[in-house]
Amino acid sequence: MISGMRPLIVAANWKMHTTPADAGELARVIAARTREPGVTRVICPPFVCLPAVREAADEDERKNGPAEPVEVGAQNIHHELAGAYTGEVSATMLGGLATWVILGHSERRRDFAESDELIGLKLVRALEAGLRPILCVGEQLADREAGQEIAVVERQLRGALAAIDAPALRDGGLVIAYEPVWAIGTGLTARGGDASAMAEAIRAVVASLGWTDAPRELPVLYGGSVTSANIAEFFAEHAIDGALVGGASLKPDEMAGIVARAGVTARARLAELPAS
Ligand code: PGA
What we know:
The protein is of the alpha/beta class and 276 residues long. 42% of the residues lie in helices and 14% in strands.
C-alpha cells in the first residue's frame, strides 16, 4: 500500500462460474497479465475452486515476489462457525484458502433472502476470522427513480454495521462495494458522478456510526456491468477506489484492461499527493 492514499482495489467476482479443473489456469493468466504497482487484486471464485486459485496465487508470488500478491476471496460465508447447516461453509473453514470475503451481494439478498441483520452477523464472523470483508450495498431501479437511493443504501449500511465497533471495522479493513442492483449483469451502469456521490454518502454514514476517519480511510468500490471500456469514467472519480467486477472478470483481456486503468489511476493519484 502506498501511504497517504487509499489503494486501488480490483475484485473479481466469478460467481457460479469455473471448475476446479480450469479455475487455476484462469487465475494464473489473470495474475500474469494484471500486475500493477498500487493496485490490489482479489479473485473470488466459487468455494470448490478456492484451492486451485490459492495455488495459482502462491505460484505467482513465488515467481514474482510478495510485492503485489494476488489475493483470494470467497463469495459468502455462513453466520455461524459450525453446526447443523447443510450445504454451508463457515469463515474458519476458509483458513489457508481465502483472506477476503464478499458479503451481502444483491444476488444473495434476492435469492437467499439475506437481510441486513443477517449480513451483519456474517460480517462479525468474517472480522473474527480475519477475512477482509467487501460489503455490497445498492438500490433497485425503482428506488433511484423515486430519489430514494441514498436512503436505501443508508438503511443497508446501518442494518449491517450497527452492532459492530468502528475500530473492528477499521482494523478489519472493511471495504464497501456500491452496486446498483439495476446495473448488475444488465450492461447498464451508473454515471461516474452518481457513483461518486453515493461513495461520499456511504463514507458519511459510516463516519456517523463512529468510524470518524471513514472519509479518509474507507475504500468504496463501484460494481455493476464494469468493463475495460467503461471503467475510466469511475476511476476518474476520486471518491471511487476500485471496482467489483462480475462478468468481465472471467475474461483475461477485460481484467488486463481494467487493472491497467487502475494502475494509471493509482499513479495519477500518487502524483497529486502533497510532498511530505
Ligand atoms: P457484473 O456483476 O459486473 O456482471 O454486472 C457485478 C457483481 O455482481 O459484482
